[in-house]
Design goal:
Helices cover 16% and strands 34% of the residues. It has 111 residues and is of the alpha+beta class. A hairpin with a 5-residue loop joins strand 4 and strand 5. InterPro entries: NUDIX_hydrolase-like_dom_sf, NUDIX_hydrolase_dom.
């Protein structure tokens, strides 16, 4: 299953479903560390493994942000700590709801 989070109604792109994510901080030692940190910050889930890359190929996906900054986006498969449970803790300023969806549910656009 894939974890999808729904953006808060008052945020940009309100109520849009997306995978948890974010950017690298300058002090992060690696992009994989950034991925695990962002997952924890947005959901409270602990990553126990990061990889493989699932989108963007080796070079990632390039685009310009609204401010004009060039961004390279990578998406990874992340395994979470099942012993800690799958209780997701959302920040209401960022996300409104979550769902653990199957690939089939996503393809049928049920979420």
């Amino acid at each position: 299953r894939v974890l999808l989070v729904q953006r808060a109604p008052h945020d940009s792109m309100p109520l849009r479903w997306e995978v948890p994510g974010g950017g690298c901080d300058e002090e992060d030692p690696s992009i994989l560390y950034s991925c695990a940190r962002e997952l924890f910050e947005e959901t409270g889930l602990k990553a126990v493994g990061v990889g493989p890359l699932v989108r963007g190929g080796l070079g990632g996906q390039f685009f310009r942000s609204r401010s004009g900054k060039l961004v390279c986006k990578f998406q990874f498969v992340v395994a979470v700590d099942l012993d800690a449970g799958l209780r997701v803790k959302l920040d209401p300023n960022e996300h409104f709801a979550y769902i653990w969806a199957t690939e089939e549910e996503v393809r049928r656009k049920e979420v």
